[in-house]
């Protein structure tokens, strides 16, 4: 618990600061809602708080297009050889998309049944220009994936078209092999730059959260907490259902392996993922669990685990589905069947471009909301609890990576069943995880000090 409250320098972690900002904004908003001081409501809440909150939302939207482009190019190019997209690559890719599509479809179904936020009216937030937008038909949705003009798609932020074009470009880059090396290196550098920009933007998240939440609760009062609570409960329920039921059914049906053994052996990676909220940071631990504890051959795991960390975001897709239904109910907007199919398609494709670092799932949510005509400002309602939800969904994400890796390895005969069935296999290395983590931190800090 302490690890999630403070970082390595003893300062309050981002998670803690966002939660404090959310609570402070909630308390101040309720007080101002009760007091109803005209000057403060007009110039502080409607002026300063609106400005800072809007700037933070704009910063999140600013990241979407370049983040998707460079992350996708690096993910596809990281495969290394077009021929690897054959048997192992094809199986893993299909399974990752299948688990993600199943995850968001089930999440939307649960959310529609429970209807979090239903009946709540957002009187204080301007929704002009968005509530009247008609969701496209299913056929238009899929037909419009292919862009007529890629430059126009990037300029207008048409994310489905951008994702399709970027994947196509990535495959072409692979086919050119060595000639593409300078381009790939440039994209990898830009991807690292985008990750730094994400960190910069998220550093201001507590202030954005405070202003957005304070403004919202000033306008709506304490009654706003109830639909947010229902959102959290539905989201956590959908995440746990996917982790313990859906993924385990995939494992049993496609590999015949014992799910209880799997859950026991993936636990160290789940704990690490929960504490870091980063799929990328958990890759070494996931690899160790999959290879040393489950017996998957390194030739398969070294491809499927990093590949999954790049394109498999079941937890993020679930969040996008539940959040979309929640905000549609809050704003009283009926998305219809075509709208929800659009959400499923967007979440599946966006998961490919979602980087495995904290906070990026929220950036992708702005894309989904914009695609179906929901107000981007609605993320103010869930932003305060998103960091905690991010920790849970990251654990779900890496569990999905391990499930698919195990299924593919079993189908290819690349798993040692004696290791998988041995309850003690790899456990002697569990105590080393903390040591390795500390060593990596020390080495990283030393590398940042020139001349040492």
Radius of gyration: 22 Å
N-C termini distance: 33 Å
CATH topology: Proton glutamate symport protein
Multimeric state of these chains? single chain
Task: Describe what this molecule looks like in 3D.
- With 452 residues, the protein is mainly α.
- It has one domain: Proton glutamate symport protein (Orthogonal Bundle), CATH 1.10.3860.
- Helix 4 packs antiparallel against helix 10, helix 12 packs antiparallel against helix 13 and helix 12 runs parallel beside helix 17.
- The two termini are 33 Å apart.
- The C terminus is likely disordered.
Short structural description:
The protein has a single domain (13-447), classed as Proton glutamate symport protein (Orthogonal Bundle), CATH 1.10.3860. The protein contains 19 helices and no strands. It has helices at 2-5, 14-35, 38-77, 87-114, 138-143, 150-156, 159-175, 181-203, 205-220, 225-255, 259-276, 283-293, 298-311, 314-331, 336-352, 360-371, 380-411, 417-421, 432-447.
Give structural attributes.
single chain; 452 residues; mainly alpha; Proton glutamate symport protein; 19 helices
What is the topology?
Elements: H1 2-5, H2 14-35, H3 38-77, H4 87-114, H5 138-143, H6 150-156, H7 159-175, H8 181-203, H9 205-220, H10 225-255, H11 259-276, H12 283-293, H13 298-311, H14 314-331, H15 336-352, H16 360-371, H17 380-411, H18 417-421, H19 432-447
């Amino acid at each position: 618990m302490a690890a999630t409250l403070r970082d390595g320098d003893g300062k309050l972690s981002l998670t803690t600061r966002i939660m404090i900002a959310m609570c402070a904004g909630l308390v101040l908003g309720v007080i101002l809602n009760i007091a109803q001081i005209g000057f403060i409501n007009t110039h502080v809440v409607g002026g300063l708080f609106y400005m800072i909150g809007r700037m933070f939302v704009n910063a999140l939207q600013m990241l979407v297009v370049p983040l998707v482009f460079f992350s996708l190019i690096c993910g596809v190019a990281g495969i290394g050889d077009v021929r690897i997209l054959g048997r192992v690559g094809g199986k893993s890719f299909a399974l990752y998309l299948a688990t993600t599509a199943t995850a968001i479809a089930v999440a939307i179904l649960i959310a529609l049944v429970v209807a979090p936020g239903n009946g709540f009216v957002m009187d204080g937030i301007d929704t002009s220009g968005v509530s009247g937008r008609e969701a496209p038909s299913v056929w238009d949705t899929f037909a419009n994936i292919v862009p007529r003009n890629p430059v126009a798609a990037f300029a207008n932020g048409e994310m489905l078209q951008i994702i399709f074009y970027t994947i196509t470009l990535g495959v072409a880059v692979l086919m050119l092999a060595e000639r593409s090396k300078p381009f790939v290196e440039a994209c990898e550098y830009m991807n690292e730059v985008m990750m730094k920009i994400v960190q910069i933007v998220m550093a201001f998240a507590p202030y954005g959260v405070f202003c957005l939440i304070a403004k919202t609760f000033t306008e709506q009062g304490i009654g706003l907490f109830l639909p947010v609570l229902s959102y959290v409960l539905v989201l956590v329920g959908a995440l746990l259902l996917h982790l313990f039921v859906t993924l385990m059914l995939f494992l049993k049906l496609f590999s015949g392996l014992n799910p209880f053994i799997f859950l026991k052996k993936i636990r160290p990676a789940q704990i690490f993922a929960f504490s870091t909220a980063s799929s990328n940071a958990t890759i070494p631990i996931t690899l160790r669990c999959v290879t040393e504890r489950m017996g998957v051959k390194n030739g398969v795991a070294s491809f499927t685990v990093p590949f999954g960390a790049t394109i498999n975001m079941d937890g993020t897709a679930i969040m996008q589905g539940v959040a979309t239904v929640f905000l549609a109910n809050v704003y009283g907007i009926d998305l219809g069947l075509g709208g929800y199919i659009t959400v499923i398609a967007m979440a599946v494709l966006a998961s490919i471009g979602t980087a495995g670092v904290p906070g990026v799932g929220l950036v992708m949510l702005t894309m989904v909301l914009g695609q179906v005509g929901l107000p981007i400002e609605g993320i103010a309602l869930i932003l305060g609890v998103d960091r905690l939800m991010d920790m849970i969904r990251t654990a779900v994400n890496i569990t999905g990576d391990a499930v698919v890796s195990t299924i593919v390895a079993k189908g290819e005969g690349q798993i040692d069943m004696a290791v998988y069935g041995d309850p003690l296999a790899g456990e002697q290395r569990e105590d080393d995880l903390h040591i390795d983590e500390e060593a990596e931190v020390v080495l990283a800090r030393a590398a940042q000090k020139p001349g040492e």
